[in-house]
Amino acid sequence: MSTSPTALAPVVVLAGGLSHERDVSLRSGRRVAIALRQAGHEVIEQDVTADLVAMLTARPGVVVFPLLHGGVGEDGALREVLALLGVRFVGSRAEACRLAFDKSVATPLVRLAGVTTPEQVALPHDMFRELGAASLVRALGERIGFPMMVKPARSGSSLGAGKVDDLEALPAAMVGAFAYGTTAVVERFVVGSEVAVTVIDTPDGPSALPPVEIVPISGVYDYASRYTAGDTRFITPARLDDQISDACRRAALTAGRTLGLRDIYRIDLIVDEHGTPTFLEANVAPGMTETSSTPLAIEASGRDLGKVCSTLVQLAAAR
Amino acid sequence: MTPAAPKRGRRWCQWYFPGRCGTVDHVSEPEVVRHDTRLDRYVDHYAARTHGMRASAVRALFSVANRPEVVSLAGGMPNIADLPLDVVGEAIRDLVLEHGVQAMQYGSGQGEPRIREHICEVMALEGIDAHPDDVTITVGSQQGLDLVTRIFCDPGDVIVAEAPSYVGALGTFASYQTRVVHVTMDDDGIDPDALRAAVESSRRGGGRPKFLYTIPNFNNPSGISQSLERRRRIIDVCRELDLLIVEDNPYGLLRLEGDPLPALRAMDAEQVIYLGSFSKTFAPGFRVGWVLAPHAVREKLVLAQESATLCPPVFSQMAVSTYLERHDWRAQIEAFKDMYRARRDAMLEALREYMPPGTTWTTPGGGFFVWVTLPDGLDAQAMLPRAVSARVAFTPGTAFYADGFGSRNMRLSFCYPTPERIREGVRRLAEVVNREYEVNRTFGIGSQQSPHHGTDVSGAPGPDQS
Lengths: 319, 466
Fold this sequence. Notes:
The structure holds two protein chains of two kinds. By secondary structure, chain A is α+β, with helices and mostly antiparallel strands.
């Protein structure tokens, strides 16, 4: 089964899927596939279809590089299947993905590890239905205060998330979040610079890449700002004092270690006016599109995307 | 300023992930020069009209709709599986062998004379008496719309359109920086009094309404058709107002019951510019459409067409001509109608069976679409991701308004999936609507307006995404 240390393992880049981030996933997959081919790997690009299992079992020794965003791509479901089949893959294991994907789980865990997180309340839809929404909505307003962020607990992208400025707008935002799942999290809105830190495993251990500062031109980093080239400024490394920049990288490493993440992941943070990095979320399948921050961070660290991906594949092959 | 090293976390996580807690932090990298990028070096060079072209989450969802697991009621692709491919294949073979040198050469900017004669025969079925000289061939009727807007509209000009109206037209109008004023419809189509009021009000406010854009037969997206009497009144009002009519008629020959009604152009040759298409009566891949316009307008259109394409594709035009000459295309349209009738009926029946009370929809006499109005407070666009998770797709109503309305509406297409799949799709959709209805009730959300987005033409699928 094991590949010899010098031979480059054949790779199945898994992209697409049936989530609403299919399009983004396909773009990430295409980019990684090209980079891995340039690095000398034999690469098959594969969607999540009924013939996936047969396809993988027919290719012993292959390493899967999952680039599925949202849903089964990030919640651990697909990686559980890969582990079950004995297929080696790049990225975090299913149990870590389950923790990271659910903001109502990941945020308290990361807070326990000493990283600052926004105050958060997580509530399932059932509670509102059974206990009456009006009083709970009011209590949320009093407890968290405005402005606040309302998000689906389990979602890999900004879809369903919204900033709420007053009590009147809160019910509609809750409905918007519940469109994506049964539990919503309500968090205090943190004002500051949005920063993304990518962590990659190297033979010497995990390495936090230079933080990327994200400045949406419209002021809101929504779907259109994320995926329209030109709509967002990416500043690498972020305009932070060295101390604060190091704090961001340490926070990212701590969050990743706490959740048990490995290989490659991205931690999104907000740096407030006091220079404190606040953990927002962990991404086990960071976007690798032309408008994603992870490839920019790799480039800024003086590395080559193809070589980084290739190293990760070889690490996975040797497991 | 720097947070303390998270010692507590390390201890805490040791029981949770043993073996991963002792790794060394590598935070010191050789920093490189700061790189500030918007990932598009030309971002400051685009024209003003380009700024509206942005990525859209709704549009991204339609890439899921293409997957076979999903029943797509979103697209507008005609079902051309029943076309006689052997006849078409033979015709194209002979075209290449016998007239290939001409077919693969540049041609006339106005289009080939032979197909312009054929088009006059096609239009005669809807009462239009036209001369081939007044026909300009375009790359689909979509390009006809583009050329008409190009020669008539300056930025800021007003175009009057039905509410709701074809998303592809709204996109074209936005790209010329025009302003769309919507006019309400009833069961007989656009309301003539509202039309008059809208134009007069716009003119009083200094606006320059250039034309009425209307789809008189089976409006996309609503499925509503203008009655004969309504057509007469609309023409009368437009004559009085001296307002040009742009009549877009891709579906007129797909009237599922009875004979086609006369086109607006059949009633007035001077006030009306007519857009026609082979996409729904033959096949869209050839991209052959046309504009029938008064003589002077036609001259401008040909010049505009020469600037845009030099000439529309000669090969496509000759292929369509050969098909029309060799095949009983009228019988083919009848066969298409039988097929679409079964699909429409399947959709209407499934809607009656599955949709919750308070939901209403149109009953189109032809075309491709049913327009659904959801119970008060439901937001169709917010529901789309949930629908896609339930393996069904539709087009949110907001795509068909330039002013942010339509949040309670969805367009369902019955053209492409089989009747069985349509039924299953509506069943899945109804489940989503019911769940959404329940969440809304929990939060006491009744009537509320959706935010005004301006023209969001990215809210509809691309033409190939059915």
